């Protein structure tokens, strides 16, 4: 068998890696060792993308010192977007839903406000946003994206009437 760093309950690009079962996910989540390794792997990948995990309790993130160079890599190579989507889904499977929210919001901020990751925009809006398990948090993130999207009239990821009324 081939195993993945961020396993899911669905098939990925590696046809030899089998999808996780619900029982395996529960066993992983109960193992301190497995979860510690999972967080180490998450931090490693964040570092590769130019991001630091500031707070392990909350999942809060910030740019790493080498962010410019790493963001250039993210902008140049779109295959990273598939990996980020996979990481986001796996965070949800492993019970790190707050981490999902922080990672998606980090990307939305860099894309829509800081304008540092223009080539990640489609993936963030089409895929990253919709990996967030919490319906309420996902709505908040869609609203956040809508608030900062230009032009707002071209935003297609949520119904305009609901976005305008959202509180």
From TrEMBL:
Q: Name one Pfam family in it.
A: OGFr_N
Q: Which InterPro entries match?
A: OGF_rcpt, OGFr
Where is the Opioid growth factor receptor (OGFr) conserved domain positioned along the sequence?
5-164
Which superkingdom heads the taxonomic lineage of this protein's source?
Eukaryota
Give a Gene Ontology cellular component term annotated to this protein: membrane
Please give the Gene Ontology molecular function terms for this protein: opioid growth factor receptor activity
Q: Indicate the family of this protein.
A: Belongs to the opioid growth factor receptor family.
This chain belongs to the protein called OGFR factor
Species: Toxostoma redivivum
